[in-house]
Amino acid sequence: MISTLETGYFIWNFSAWLKIFLLSAGVFCMIIFIIKKRTGGSLVSNKLSPGCENGLEPGFFERKVSLFRIRIMQPWFDFPFSHILSILVLFLLFAVALFTKSGVE
Amino acid sequence: MQNMLINILGYFSSWVLMLVTLMVALFAEGIHTYLSGRSLGRRGMMVSLIPLREIFRSMTIPISLPEASVVRLSIYMPCFALAALIPIAASIPFFSFLPVMDNGGDLVQILQFAALSETLAILAVFSLGTTDAQITAERMTRELVRLIVPMMAAFISIAFYYSASGIEGDPFSLNVFTMALQMSPSAPFSFAGTLIFIFVIFSQIPHSDAGFGCSLLENCELPDFNGAPRSMLQLWSIFRAFLVVALVTHIFFPWAYFKGLNAGFSISWWAQSVNFAAFWTTVLLIRVFGVTLCWKVMDILEKMFMIKNSRAWLCIILTTAATLLVVYEGIKISMEVAAF
Q: In Å, how far are B106, B158, B247, B250, B280 from B93, measured between CA atoms?
């Protein structure tokens, strides 16, 4: 597995970053899980529309997708900042292209 | 097999060391909130709870979430946001004595992890699903843009300056940034630009004006979101602010006076200890006094400019001015080299 990317200017050690990130995420999630087990019981569940009008309950996957779309994705698109974020991404790509001299002999 | 075990042990121990070093962030935050609480108290404002105590207290109470929340995301997303900060800590040599990153951190990659961490935290707040949460998340996005744009501009223009002045190696590597030592008063434009960059970055570190320091949420904010995930987000905010300070301090620390940096274990233990103590003391002082001073100066400047969105305008104008100054010095040097 290629774990280090060297492109002249950039030397990115992917595997080291990923290992540290995953180790940290695992440990923190475990801490929260243990705390939840010990103190839990009063979690408010998201009972959205228990029993739909037509008696047609959306399936598990459909519900998750619509939740993700409405609660997570839609607010980002509604943002007045979405164009600024796009410009930021383009700026980053520009910097990468500039310093890696891609296309320049 | 034995190698793998040793690797895992190495990673785990350096990881624990990093967490221990991050405790300096809590210490700095404690001092800051104590001092600001006293000054607010003198002005007749009551700061009833010490934020740090509140953070650790809410770790032990049952988790509660708003009814509209996406439960699993709201609970576990703060963990991932906090975890994405740890690789940034790993790229700063003094966070752990073990060399985790081979070539030091790459500043562009550090910014990517910072953006990832912020995005995960914003998603965690969005997943609560209430109108208040949305307002908080929008505020966080504005703060993210204000903090990350000056940092990107600073790293890229200073890297350009370094490559124009003929530095060896990757100009985005933290080691090159740290050891280049080319930001001297003999190059006045880049020196002024760098100082403006430092001011803008420090002044844009998200903070509360009501005595809550760098905590993400104030006491009355999102009251129906409580328990360990809330504490995680609060800790994330404090660590993020501290990491920005540590990173900027590491880049501009006068290492010439502290010999032996990055010399590995070949230098004497006392020299390493002196370096360690000097660096973290500087970070602590800058976090408690320097950053607060930048916040105050920015507030004063903001009040002087009587226009709408004066803070955003100030941030844009100062960042542009600093970029132009640093790039101008780079172009000047490369023209001199070409003429020579």
A: 12, 21, 10, 9, 12
What is the total residue count of chain B? 340
Residue corresponding to tokens 């360990």: B228
SS3 B173: strand
Coil, strand or helix at A11: strand
- Strand, helix or coil at B118? helix
Mean pLDDT, chain A, as a whole number? 65
- Measure the CA–CA gap between B64 and B329, rounded to whole angstroms: 55
CA distances from B38 to B44, B127, B212, B214, B295 (A): 10, 36, 12, 17, 17
Q: Which of residues 17-76 of B touch A (CB under 8 A)?
A: 59-71, 73, 75-76
ipTM for the whole predicted complex goes beyond 0.90: no
Q: Over the stretch B12-53, which tens digit does the pLDDT of each residue have?
A: 766 777 787 788 888 888 888 788 777 766 666 555 446 677
Q: How far from chain centre, in Å, is Cα A101?
A: 30
Tokens of B242: 């501290």
Contacts of A19 (CB under 8 A, 6+ apart): B11
Dist. CA B218–CA B94, nearest whole Å? 31
The rounded distance, in Å, linking the Cα atoms of B172 and B170 is 5
A63-75 confidence digits (pLDDT tens): 777 787 777 777 7
Q: Are B124 and B73 contacting, i.e. CB atoms less than 8 angstroms apart? A: yes
The residue with tokens 């070409």 is: B338
Q: What pLDDT does residue B156 have?
A: 87
Across the interface, of B79, B106, B123, the residue whose CB is closest to A32 is B79
Please list, in sequence order, all residues whose beta carbon lies within 8 angstroms of the beta carbon of residue B262, skipping any fewer than 6 positions away: B93, B104, B175, B178, B179
d(CA B251, CA B253): 6
- Cβ atoms < 10 Å from Cβ of A8: 10
Chain B, residues 156-215, CB within 8 A of chain A, namely 156, 159, 163, 170-173
Distance between CA atoms of residues B133 and A72, nearest Å = 12
